[in-house]
Design a protein that fits this description.
mainly alpha, 76% helix, 201 residues
Length: 201
């Protein structure tokens, strides 16, 4: 176990050193820009990985959940017009154990996201926290924090790399969410329409 742990630590150190060499040219633009780039790249990676990678069990549970969910929706629609048919569909839903399927689907999705989103984000967060410690920031850029935020009460707060990285990750996700909504809205306008960022229906 000691040898395996030493091998893992060595691999992590090499990966960290390689990543630092990769981003070091960005330091001429300052740590604020560099960390923002790391955050955006991390979000792009997680979005791509989350969409492309899904376990076989997750896909199976997703199909099963959608099947029973559609039956439930159909039963709700028939409740007023055809109550007997709606009741029979309700019995089938009970037999299908929709709740059990939903919880299995939910937890499998949570585990899937743990691998494709949470682990990459927290790994990069750990890298930022380790790489841009106050002493390192002082040596590279002349100050122990990234910038100072002036609050409405006149109080100033120094912003560190961890807070800035988390903020940029949330901002990137919100930006991609907004762009996606605009693209979907533009696609609904009809063929040949173009919207934000060249979205085409």
């Amino acid at each position: 176990m000691d040898a395996l742990w030493a091998l893992i630590v060595s691999g992590i150190n090499q990966l960290q050193a390689g990543l630092y060499q990769l981003i070091s040219p960005l330091h001429v633009l300052g740590p604020v820009f560099t960390i923002a780039v790391l955050a955006v790249v991390t979000v792009l990676f997680t979005r791509f990985f989350t969409r492309r990678f899904k376990t076989r069990r997750y896909r199976t549970l997703e199909q099963e959940f959608k099947y029973w969910f559609n039956i439930k929706q159909e039963a709700l629609k028939l409740r007023e017009t055809e109550p007997e048919k709606a009741r029979q569909l309700g019995v089938n839903i009970d037999k299908g154990k929709l709740n059990e399927v939903y919880y299995n689907y939910f937890f499998e999705g949570l585990l899937n996201n743990l691998l494709t989103m949470y682990i990459p984000i927290f790994s990069m967060l750990a890298f930022v926290n380790y790489t841009y410690q106050p002493d390192t920031l002082k040596a590279l850029f002349g100050k122990t924090h990234l910038f100072t935020l002036l609050w409405i009460n006149g109080q100033t707060y120094p912003i560190g790399p961890v807070f800035w990285f988390v903020f940029c990750v949330f901002a990137a996700y919100l930006a991609f969410f907004g762009i996606g909504r605009v693209c979907r809205r533009d696609r609904g306008r009809g063929p040949g329409k173009k919207g934000l960022a060249g979205c085409e229906a």
